[in-house]
Amino acid sequence: MENSLRKTVIILAAGQGTRMKSPLPKVLHPVAGQPMIQYTISALKECQFDDIRVVVGVGENLVRPLMEQQGARCFRQLQQLGTADAVRSAQPENIEGLVLIINGDHPLITKEHVENIIKEFESEQADLAVVTCVLKKPGQFGRIVRHYDQIKAIVEAKDASMDTLKINEVNTGIYVVQAELLHSVLPLIGNSNKQNEFYLTDMVSKSVESGKKVIGIKAPKDVAFGVNSQKELAQATQLKFKKKCEQLMENGVIIIDPRSTYIESSVRVGSGSVIYPGVYLKGLSVVGSFSVLEPNVFLIDSVLHDGVQVRAGSYIEKAVIKSKATVGPYARIRPNTLIEEDAHIGNFVELKNVTFGRGAKAGHLTYLGDAEIGENTNIGCGTITCNYAVDHKKYKTTIGKNVFVGSDTQFIAPVNIGDDAVIGSGSTITKDVPDKALAVARGKQFIKENYTKK
Ligand code: UD1
Ligand code: CA
């Protein structure tokens, strides 16, 4: 077989996923934060296929856009009549060369797995290869029936005799086949079985009968791991998180309890950072070196530079936090927020669309929205930027450098505070304050002696 053969992959993703008992199409169920089919398509995209075809059906309106935006072509299976019917729906008659067929519900498959399978198929010069795995508990997998080592057939668990069920070698649902063989064998597959489905697995016996070279390629357990139930979905997620933690620990990240640490595969963490239990890092988040994430920190698509400390229970979304800043405990950092170096955000502080200057502080119980805070400015406890007005529009508060904002201040936006200004506690600031000025805007204290009579 030449390496120059055209390579096509067909991903089967039209099934209902009845055993998931959920209205979401099975292949879109999330495994460690990504739809499970995403792992399949990502691995395959790295493997230089000329053509990626996805068979869609149940939930097509949701599955198709996700696949097409990644360059795959989708083919509709009108009725879910079985895996062989699914392959027929992918218009195999206009495929040439080598065809990899793979189920969309095996989220632990990696690029390396696929590369090894293709390599072995090519070196064996086979017509058809079934990727198999030996399992202690073969469960509901199709069983590989051999005669003197030679593969003869795959028998679905539902159709198997007690003796066949004892076979430990199972079908992983991955096949490599020469296109010509696929063309000739597909029409031979019928549906006389327990489920009245057209089984792709019958491709094996039909090919053997017509004298073709059929081989088994043994793969590691991860390849066989298919998700058919909510329980298996959770197991897949746990395995992904475990693997991610192991990779990070190998690269010098300190993880106190990997069993309760949840880091999606897309996240990067620098060496020397410490991750406490209950931390969840999502999406495109990046954490630098020597940062500390205390228990139950939740990070979404955020970038933390080196030496950042995030204290327990903080929720951070689409924000950037520069070196040596401290945040929390119990801070909420909302999208489009930049916290500069050495800044300090304390407990029960919420920031949204804020640039928070270098060395500035907001230690307690504060809401800053649509604001710019200059360097070394101190924001007193209970400060609020009143950014949302009765006209339903958002207005901006700009506060200069080295400003001292007394506690319990409200800024009625739009408003600008100059550098080095001082705002008296309890002020409601409605007008701009110039540089170096003192502004006090609160009711005067009033004393009435002997007000209560004994
Ligand atoms: C299938 C294999 C079984 C193997 C197992 C590995 C068959 C008959 N059986 O069983 O030997 O051990 O995978 O996980 O192939 N699909 C369609 N259209 C359909 C039916 C299914 O697109 O009409 C898709 C599903 O979305 C899924 C994949 O094919 O991604 C496998 O279908 P599923 O019903 O999960 O097959 P299994 O019973 O797991
Ligand atoms: Ca399956």
Return residue spans where pLDDT drops below 50 for at least 5 consecutive residues: none
What level of helicity do the residues show? 10-25%
Bound molecules: uridine-diphosphate-N-acetylglucosamine, calcium ion
Distance between the termini: 107 Å
Which class do the helix and strand fractions yield?
A: alpha/beta
Average pLDDT metric: 97
In the residues, how many domains can be counted?
Answer: 2
Describe the structure.
The protein is an alpha/beta fold. It has two domains: 218 residues, Alpha-Beta Complex (Spore Coat Polysaccharide Biosynthesis Protein SpsA, Chain A), CATH 3.90.550; 210 residues, Hexapeptide repeat proteins (UDP N-Acetylglucosamine Acyltransferase, domain 1, 3 Solenoid), CATH 2.160.10. It contains nine helices and 37 strands. The strands form five sheets. It has a 23-stranded parallel sheet that branches. Strands 5-4-1-6-10-7-11 form a seven-stranded mixed sheet, sandwiched between helices. It has a three-stranded parallel sheet with strand order 30-33-36, with no helix packed on it. The radius of gyration is 30 Å and the shape is elongated. The site of calcium ion has 4 residues, from loops.
